[in-house]
Design brief:
This protein is 35% helix and 21% strand. By secondary structure, the protein is an alpha/beta fold. The chain is globular, with a radius of gyration of 21 Å.
Length: 270
Amino acid sequence: MKKKLSLLIAVSISAVMLLTGCGSSSSSTFKVGLEAGYAPFNWTQKDDSNGAVKIEGGSDYAGGYDVEIAKKIAKDLGKELVITKTEWDGLVPALSSGKIDAIIAGMSPTAKRKEVIDFSDNYYKSDLVMVVKKGGKYDAATSINDFKGAKITAQLNTLHYSVIDQIQGVKKETAMDNFPAMRVALQSGIIDGFVSERPEGLSSQAANNSFKMVEFKKGFTTSQEDKSIAVGLAKKSDLTAKINKTLAGISQADRKKIMDTAIKNQPSAK
């Protein structure tokens, strides 16, 4: 009887440990998932310069706007920030399974995503732009309609890719996994342009002087949610209110300053 009781207690303790592991506010760490490949929101670098944070399980570090926001949140939570590098398509599953506590990766709080996860208040807002070759055929574009016949792509499973359908006569190319791949495709002429948010557009043209960010007088039709970026959280997470409190304390001026610094510090811009 004692052996059975001891076994029952051991199983119970193990269950409690699992329940209080990653994803719970009782943990001493705040595990954040991001791509570390979407400058200036997040990127990978070789050292801890400019406040970069070590990526879990490797020798590289993550920097960028998202990382700076994550650092502020972790500090207010009284937790150690842990950065988990995760492919874009794996972020929501990682959050839902409890492998990470939050997604801070330039993610928009769309209605479709809200069906699966919750979101904090917004921590950035930006318009959509097009990145093209400087001096090329689409350099002087002012409207999305100027891209009729152009070979355009965007990142897989993003709003950026879906809005390409708004361009009449466009040649919608296969979606790509990440922004570095799109920059290479643009440089080599495989595509004529790719859709991104303004900060990434600024980042692209800063990284490569043969690129140009096109801002539109007549642009894509999007909702305010589509233009916004928020922290992804598990359904009914007890971190949501605490994170919103931190975000409320970051002024618009401070957010602009953090983003301007991120654009300046991105490794590829040096």
